[in-house]
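Why do we bother with a discrete structure alphabet at all? Because it lets us treat a fold like text: something you can write down, compare, and reason about line by line. To make this less abstract, here is a complete entry for Histone-lysine N-methyltransferase. Read it the way you would read a sentence in a foreign language you are learning: slowly, and without expecting to understand everything at once.
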Amino acid sequence: MVSENFKNHWPTVKFKCLSQDMEYYLVKWKGWPDSTNTWEPLQNLKCPLLLQQFSNDKHNYLSQVKKGKAITPKNNNKTLKPAIAEYIVKKAKQRIALQRWQDELNRRKNHKGMIFVENTVDLEGPPSDFYYINEYKPAPGISLVNEATFGCSCTDCFFQKCCPAEAGVLLAYNKNQQIKIPPGTPIYECNSRCQCGPDCPNRIVQKGTQYSLCIFRTSNGRGWGVKTLVKIKRMSFVMEYVGEVITSEEAERRGQFYDNKGITYLFDLDYESDEFTVDAARYGNVSHFVNHSCDPNLQVFNVFIDNLDTRLPRIALFSTRTINAGEELTFDYQMKGSADISSDSIDHSPAKKRVRTVCKCGAVTCRGYLN
């Protein structure tokens, strides 16, 4: 018989022991202090997911011990050893922390695609100094003009002389919302002053990420990564790269600090000048967690919508090929939005004499370093 306590409060299973061939679990009740923990027989626990997590955590710990060739004493008293119990408790706390972080990310994001978080590799929890934003955050002293001065009056932007034509470039998308222009060509989307509606074929990047993505812990020492949970067609918009907009001089200072820590979050806005850089170290969106690859499946494009200042393009990432569900998303950290996919796109600015960060992408064409 399940008590009211079981019905109203999901438990956290912490320990297990056997007594007279009956399994008992020490249960931490949600919303109640540790002093109210109780030992409960398996038959009382109507929480199959928690029990499965308990079993998986125990198995994962023992597998890690086996890989490390550590020798553990036999479990003669049929209770969990303290080290195993401690690991299971830490995993439970981590799972709760990651779920809370996932909920926070989805509260803050303003796009259709959902964000999920997963760590089946280690005990790392949410980053402690990262703040989710949906658009550029200007550093003190930098002004971002986010209001267009003119817009189109098209009734059908796909066939008429629209914003791209006014800027002297081709419309970037085909009827399937796929990008059709070569890398290095800027994208000019319709803006807030345009008379076309939200279904305009020239409004893609501004709608934000449409795909459900998962921030996950990599198993080869690359920290967090991002994978797609759905299939993404080739040449499709995936996400924007956003962060804090800083001057190139400030980027130089921060870059040396980041290189010493082995991290890379600086993206030069060098479409026509090199005055500004986007720093996604503390402020960013899902793109903050996208790893580098020397053979990436995402390509960088410069985008102009409401802000037409060529010194401050928005950075959009498009798929270079079909990306299957469960596949990790990557882009080349040395790729410029103003160049094609070639050795010419390697960005050696703003400094050449920095600590070099070893690349772990594993691609056949790996250059060996991130910078």
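What the structure line is telling us, in plain words: The two ends are 62 Å apart (CA to CA). The mean pLDDT is 85.
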